[in-house]
Specification:
Number of domains: 2
Structural class: alpha+beta
CATH topology of the largest domain: FAD/NAD(P)-binding domain
Order of helices and strands: HHHHHHEEEEHHEEEEHEEEHEHH
CATH class of the largest domain: Alpha Beta
Strand order of the largest sheet: 7-8-9-6-10
Radius of gyration: 21 Å
Shape: globular
Length: 327
Amino acid sequence: MHRIGWLTRSRSKFFNALNPLNYISMGALLKLGRFTDDFKYQILKPMFVNFVLATNVFDMPAALFARYLDFFDIERATPMWTWDQGTRRIYENLTANFRDKIFLNRAVRKVYRNAESVVLEDANGVRETFDDVIFACNADQALAILDNPTWLERYILSSVRYDASLHHEAVVHCDSSVLPSNETKSLETRSNYIKQYGPTPDNYEITYIMHNQQPWVNRSDKPCLVTYNPVNPIDEGKILKRHRFQHIVHDVRHVAWVVNLFRFVQGRRKTWHCGAHTLINSQETCFITGLAAARQVGADYPFDDPEAKEVFNYYGSILYGSRFRKA
């Protein structure tokens, strides 16, 4: 992986396509290397489950493992730089000029399309007409909402698979008893996993210590923790919120095949798609897919940083090919 790592890091789509690690799963590579189960299940898998919260991480392309190792500093608990107040502050700033046009708690039941416009019908049967529609939701939800999808839309959206077997619920809490006593202080560690000795060898509890990932949380006098798949019950009096998720299966088939098909339906019939299933599974790239969809329908790219623009243009060209409107 180290020898051909430059192919993984390359911003050239041609060289990236030549990377053999895109087409072999990490599990197959570990088998070829004759790595032990202890290394796979006690070191490598808990680390990457921690990154992507998917149980089938060994089905992912080996190239994704290399990318994550380049991105994350696994040797020291370096705080990650982010916006103060996290992503909520990002969305508040980006939507400041049109917040009055955002509707919450208004589920869309069906999307009807014709040559001139797109009609959205909500759960109460109320219809409104728009120029375009952007699906910023899971692929299976988009397919259920679309009226009369094309055969290619149906094939692509139904090809995106999800897993919710283990890490499907996030518990936000301040119960420090889930952590070893020497790992409750802020900035000492990013996350902790505890191996469960159940029927499967790869069942992990993961707790994110948010003081590390979001330094502004350190202003509180209570620990801010997010736990998935807890071994023992968390004190109900210390639970702040629960979130349920289903995670995309980012195996070789999805990354090498399905992701590259989305460009053939993007913008067709006034319909656009964004989200982790249209690119690589991470918060950063998922955020970029939303900005790219907005860019395609006429919005300006909102940031001035040259490196951010370079990354945006690189991923945008993967999403839309030559039709992408660069920043």
